[in-house]
Fold:
Amino acid sequence: MSSQLIPPKPTVQTPKQATKPQARLNSAFKQLWSVHWWMAAFYLVLFVGGFAMEQMSEEIALREHAYTLHKSIGALTMALLTLRIFILQRVWWRKYTRRLPKINGEWIRAFLLHTAIYVFMLAVPLSGFFLSNSYQSGNVPFFWLTLPDIFPQNSAVVGLARNLHFWLAYTFLAFIVMHMIDQQKYVRSLWRRANQALKKMSVKQS
Structure:
């Protein structure tokens, strides 16, 4: 019998093969989630540290080290933001090439809120660069390195840059609070998990 009359055997995917694309998607999502929490932790340090630095006297030697750490972490958040956007594009591509989002009022509200947060994640450290560069050239350290200037030194705009950095930072904080309220169910579940973990640790230690 001719081999052309014999139908080819159907290709049967094993469970491992069938779930491989989903595993890749989950991997990208987990990377995005990890970067999210790293950036959240760094921004918490920036906000707390920025408030503490304002209370320090200029004569305190710790103030200079605090500014170095503040600027270094601010520069680090910009690098993480670049990585975050790259991973987000991968997640969106894999998600929305299969099915477009259902655009409604809730989706538009969430999209606008997240877009505003991403804009502030870029604008706040950039305004910090503007303030530091305007005050003095070569004034943005990245731990043991010195980053190149983005803006020219200009003492005439230092006051403007300081106000811009201050108001952008606290407006960003307001949007973070809005985001937490929007995700209050998830925040409460995280709080419960943290409390349970602390209770388990205390029981083990006792």
Strands lie at 141-142, 145-146. The chain is about 75% helix and 0% strand.
